[in-house]
UniProtKB/TrEMBL annotation:
Pfam families: STAS (PF01740)
Name by which UniProt lists this protein: STAS domain-containing protein
PROSITE patterns registered for this protein in UniProt: STAS
InterPro entries registered for this protein in UniProt: STAS_dom, STAS_dom_sf
Organism listed in the record: Microbacterium candidum
Positions of the STAS domain: 16-116
Domain of life of the native organism: Bacteria
Length: 118
């Protein structure tokens, strides 16, 4: 299988928030890159992490597992985790796996910031 390598770009959003823009295929193979991006955002003082999936092409069960690992790391740091840019298909997967109970889903980054404030 020739999968597209995922990229993780950290974008400071101000007010203790950061986005991780995720592009490509989200599989267990990109775990190190996602965790490094999370560390960068955390080191920059982010208490809210917005996972931006607008550039994601594909996610498999390994990618879901990696998000659970990220969620645990975020909870240990008292961070709020939100997601934007999921297609309807991946929103359904988040709902079926109940991941949407821990990672709040929003339509936009502005909505995510408003919905996680506090």
């Amino acid at each position: 299988m020739n999968e597209r390598i995922a990229t993780m770009d950290v974008v400071a959003l101000g007010s203790g928030a950061a986005a991780i823009a995720i592009s490509g295929d989200v599989t267990a193979a990109c775990e190190q890159d996602l965790m490094a991006a999370h560390e960068q955002a955390t080191d920059d003082g982010a208490k809210t992490i917005v996972l931006d999936f607008h550039g994601m092409d594909y996610m498999n069960s390994g990618g879901i597992g990696m998000l659970v690992t990220l969620l645990v790391r975020g909870q240990r740091r008292q961070q709020r985790i939100a997601a934007v840019g999921l297609t309807e298909h991946y929103r359904q997967i988040f709902q079926l796996t109940r991941l949407d109970e821990a990672i709040l889903l929003f339509d936009s980054t502005d909505q995510a910031l408003a919905g996680t404030a506090g």
